[in-house]
C-alpha cells in the first residue's frame, strides 16, 4: 500500500519545486525594487506621507496599496520596510489589505469580464473594508 503513494509524492514534490522556481524571480524582483526605492527615496518621505494620524494614515495606506496592487507576498515585504521606516501599524495593515483586495490596475480587465458596476462596487467596498479592518486589527492588538 505504501508504494501506491510514491508516484503521488514525487509528483507533488515536482510541482512544489516548479512553483518555487516560478515564485523565486518575483521575490528577487521585489527585493531589488525595494533596494532601489530605499536608495532613491529619502527617509523623510515616509514621515511626510504618513502623518502619524490614526485616521488619515490608514486612508493613505489603503490608497497606496490599491494603486500599487500586486502579489500578497510582496506586500509583506513592503509592509516590513514601512514598519522599519517608522510608519504606523494601522497604515501598514491598510496598505497590505488594499494591496491584496483592491485592484485599480486590474480594474479595466475586471470591468470587461464582470461588468463595470460590479468591479467598481467590489473595489470600493474592498477599499473601505481595508481601512476598517486595519483600524479594528490595531485596536484589537492594543487590548492583547
Relevant terms:
single chain; mainly alpha; 2 domains; globular
Q: What can you tell me about this protein's structure?
A:
The chain has 144 residues and is mostly helical. It has two domains: 1-40; 43-143, no CATH class. It is built from seven helices and no strands. The chain starts with 5 loop residues before the first helix and ends with a helix. The model has no long low-confidence stretch (mean pLDDT 84).
List the helices and strands and how they pair.
Layout: H1 6-40, H2 44-49, H3 56-67, H4 72-84, H5 89-101, H6 107-114, H7 116-143
Helix pairs in contact: 1-4, 3-5, 3-7, 4-5, 5-7, 6-7
Which descriptor suits the 3D outline?
Answer: globular
The proportion of strand residues reads: under 5%
**Which series of helices and strands comes N to C?**
HHHHHHH
Q: Residue ranges: pLDDT <50 for 5 or more in a row?
A: none
Radius of gyration, in angstroms, nearest whole number: 19 Å
Number of structural units classed as domains: 2
Number of helices: 7
Approximately how much helix is present in the residues?
over 70%
Total number of beta strands: 0
Distance between the termini: 48 Å
How is the biggest beta sheet arranged? none
Mean pLDDT: 84
Structural class: mainly alpha
